[in-house]
Amino acid sequence: MSKVIVANDCAIEAIALLKSMFANQVASITQRELTADDLKDTEALLIRSATRVNRELLSRAPKLKVIVSATVGFDHLDLEALAERNIVAMYCPSAHTESTAQLTIAQCLNLTRSLVLADKAIRKDYWRTELKRKASLEGMQLGIVGFGRIGRRVSELAKAFKMQVVAHDPYVEQDRFEQHKVKSLGLIEVLKTSDIVTFHVPLTTETMHMVNEKTLEHFNPKAYLINASRGGVINETELAVKMRTGMLNGAALDVFEKEPLKKQSPLMELPNVLLSAHMGAYTLDALEQGSMEAARKIVGYLQNGEISDSLPPKQEWAKHLIKFDS
Ligand code: NAD
Questions:
Q1: Could you give the CA distance from residue 306 to residue 303 in angstroms, rounded to a whole number?
Q2: Which of 6, 12, 158, 165 would disulfide-bridge 28, Cβ 3.0–4.6 Å?
Q3: Phi then psi for 140, rounded to 5 degrees?
Q4: pLDDT > 70: what percent of the chain?
């Protein structure tokens, strides 16, 4: 009987907003799959990436008008199936910029200061004997691949650490780089010249396995690689092979080809790879911002037909989106 269903983690303020607008017509169902009975009257769904919106789910929701994902990624939505049913799909592309940019800087600091290793060493009573001295961030060149919202924010934060910043993004006008005082380079030049290379691209047919055995040849062996974008951007098997042969100083990976990362992954055995569990947006602030933005979008659409940040995105790169795998 619910007009609006909140299907994943959501800030209580956002649920309160929905309840204030649609009294007794909002349900929060987060601990189990949504059944046909749950969905039979539902007009709006507020989700996160844990809910895969495929044809099967849509077939259980005959009255669905709008889906809002409180996330930046949207690869969990079958956009073709939504378009066929004329269901409006929106996302919240700005909600996680700050938290993901901060995670990227945390990864830069962790890689260069070995904080995780230091913690393990001290608990084993080794103090500093096992730790190498490494170069610190000031004066290092940070290469950003994908100069969108997160890439640009990372560039601002990196400058506070006195890093030199270069970037590669074929879809961004030159004046955007100039505004941020960031040098625009080709991909290979970024890989060759940077001390740390960080990826902030969407997953498309162009960016799929952008890091592979061929492109890894161009990295400086003393460089570090960071990926907090989408796992498919890196060919993990080829990365693991190259890292075993000492072709990179270290890597920090927040996202993986298959999540959660399996114990058998070759990445698990590499001591110079820092792993985190898709935590770019895993902060209270990011949850609140995403949830509130998504709840406002639902209210705006159901009350006034307002649409913002509709999917698929209008940008040029979205012509290369990967087909949804149900
Ligand atoms: P955005 O759309 O603002 O920026 C992406 C940029 O990548 C754009 O400027 C685009 O022009 C560029 N791009 C597209 N194709 C490219 C190519 N072939 N080569 C180089 N650049 C290319 O997106 P954003 O908000 O900055 O997010 C970036 C990525 O981070 C997305 O994949 C998003 O899903 C991911 N993300 C991850 C987390 C996490 O938890 N780790 C959190 C938020 C976002």
A1: 8
A2: 6
A3: -70, 155
A4: 100
As for how many domains the chain has, the answer is: 2
Question: 278 an active-site residue?
Answer: yes
Residue 2: predicted pLDDT: 81
Answer whether 255's CB lies under 8 Å from 107's CB: no
Give distance in angstroms: CA of 106 to centre of ligand 1: 18
The length of the chain is: 326
Q: pLDDT by residue (tens digit) across 29-50? A: 999 999 999 999 999 999 999 9
Tell whether 189 and 106 lie within a shared domain: yes
Which pLDDT score is estimated for 325? 84
Tell how far the Cα of 139 is from the centroid of ligand 1, in angstroms.
Answer: 25
Sheet of strand 224-227, all strands in order from the earlier edge strand to the far edge: 183-184, 164-168, 141-145, 196-199, 224-227, 250-253, 273-275
* CA-proximal residue: ligand 1, atom 1 (nearest): 148
- CA-based Rg of the chain, rounded to a whole angstrom? 21
Identified catalytic residue from 236, 278, 293, 296: 278
CATH classification of the domain holding 46: 3.40.50.720
CA of 242 to the centre of ligand 1 (A): 25
> Does a structural domain hold residue 326?
no
From 152, 230, 236, 293, the catalytic residue: 230
Residues 168, 152 within the same domain: yes
Q: Are residues 260 and 298 in the same domain?
A: no
Residues 210 and 315 occupy one common structural domain:
no
Task: Find the DSSP H helices in 22-148.
Answer: 36-39, 55-59, 79-84, 97-113, 115-123
- Ligand 1 closest atom vs CA 152: 26
Range of the domain at 58: 4-95+284-320
223 lies in the same domain as 150? yes
What value does the mean pLDDT take over residues 109-119?
Answer: 96
Q: Read off the pTM.
A: 0.96
